[in-house]
Design a protein that fits this description.
By secondary structure, the chain is an alpha+beta fold. 31% of the residues lie in helices and 31% in strands.
Amino acid sequence: MSSDPRTAALTDSEYLARAGAVLADIEACIDAWLQGDVVDIDTHRTGGLLELGFENGSKIVLNTQPPLHELWLAARSGGFHYRYSGGHWVDTRDGSELFAALSACASEQAGKPLRFTPPG
């Protein structure tokens, strides 16, 4: 009986690689928006912490939590914890998907519709 790799627990190195890729994908998306003059969002990354700064002074913070194998998102609308499951980062409380939540939070804070898409 083989296990599905999308639902199996991540090893520490798999977690670090996946979490790092998420932060890099978010940065790349914002860089493309900046180049296309879509929205002005400042990014600052320190290790596993990515801070998004909006023109109105608000911030969104994404932070890796290696001991828990989670990604945390803090925004005006609240704080959310995500674990990798079924090929996606899902909220530990309601099962919603990270990129959908990030899109909603960023859209609210930027005052215009923004859509982050998961890699793949």
